[in-house]
Amino acid sequence: MSNLNNTAPTNIIWVDLETTGRNSELDGIVEIGAIFERDGKIVDQFQCYVRPMPNDRLQQAAMNVHKLSLEFLNTNGL
User: Fold this and answer.
1) How far is it between the farthest Cα atoms of the chain?
2) Is 49 helix (H, G, I), strand (E, B) or coil?
3) CA gap 51, 53 in Å, rounded
4) What is the pTM of this model?
């Protein structure tokens, strides 16, 4: 019989990506965000911008959603 009071902590990492479009073969990642959760409480966060690769397609519809410009990404991205 298990004892529910001795359960291991619940650790979850939530990851969110912003991209230049919806096709993983043609479009690139421009932002990565993550939230680290332990037992339902946020314990840490991560966020960074990524410069598009030279061959990444830049779809205007995707850029309108996340509102990150190519100029901003080239200046602030990894």
Assistant:
1) 60
2) strand
3) 6
4) 0.80
